[in-house]
Amino acid sequence: MSNTLSKKEIINLLPHREPMLLIDELLDIVKLKSATAIMNVKKDGFYVQGHFPGQPVMPGVLIVEAFGQAAAALTAHGIDKKTYENKLVFLMSVEKARFRNPVVPDCKLELKIEAIRSHGRVWKYKGEAFVGDKKMADAQWSATIVDRK
Q1: Residue 52, preceding bond cis, omega within 30 degrees?
Q2: Residue 119 annotated as catalytic
Q3: Digit-coded pLDDT (tens) for 5-29
Q4: Residue 24 class from Cβ within 10 Å (0-12 exposed, 13-18 middle, 19+ buried)?
Q5: Domains, the chain, ordered by start
Q6: CA distance 43 to 58
Q7: Which is the catalytic residue, given 16, 51, 77, 119?
Q8: pLDDT per residue over 66-114, tens digit each?
Q9: CA 40, CA 110: separation in Å to the nearest integer?
Q10: Please, are residues 26 and 10 in contact by the beta-carbon 8 Å criterion?
């Protein structure tokens, strides 16, 4: 099993599509444990055009969304494909989200995520977001795998 996923491979795992597919790569994958997602924060991204004109900043809620997408890709990549077919991953809770520094385009946001535990279809994760060596945000969150309707 590969320990790197391209955007094309992520598209095969997640239901998200442009412009809401935020992560570009998943690297350093340790099956069902951890990974690093790459998000290329661009100045033409839909989320920066109006947030804020003349001084673009990536919304913190989208950093949390990118954490969730990275975790969903890590989990989908690691579990049996039959278990994941026709399923969606929904965010259940976000805890302890902290935004330490504004994320401004053009940068490479690295999202280091870790699965803390799973119980049935409920998973708990934690993550830290960096630009270079500078921590930009961190959070813990829970998600569940549900049947696609």
Answers
A1: yes
A2: no
A3: 999 999 999 999 999 999 999 999 9
A4: middle
A5: 7-147 (3.10.129.10)
A6: 10
A7: 51
A8: 999 999 999 999 988 877 788 888 999 999 999 999 999 999 999 999 9
A9: 9
A10: yes
